[in-house]
Amino acid sequence: MDLEFTGEVWHWKGPSPHHFVTVPEDECEDLAETAAMVSYGWGMIPVTVRIGGTEWTTSLWPKDGRYIVPLRLDVRRREGIDVGDTVAVRLVVGV
Description:
alpha+beta
């Protein structure tokens, strides 16, 4: 399954702070249908992510009935991404 969407970068200030993009609701519905086939536990979904010219593998995290894409620091630096930026995201699910 391939998905493309745009979303705003936000920062979670928890005990282990990190940056994320929330997957839009419609795409989350499609992901939920696929999750049972590809999830390796806790609702995590393995994906390959592309933002700009950078591609990496990670897992989508379930949060509040949706999924969020974690953005690594090296990716944010390479692509010049900051909190509040809107980014185009491509996901390939089940890698």
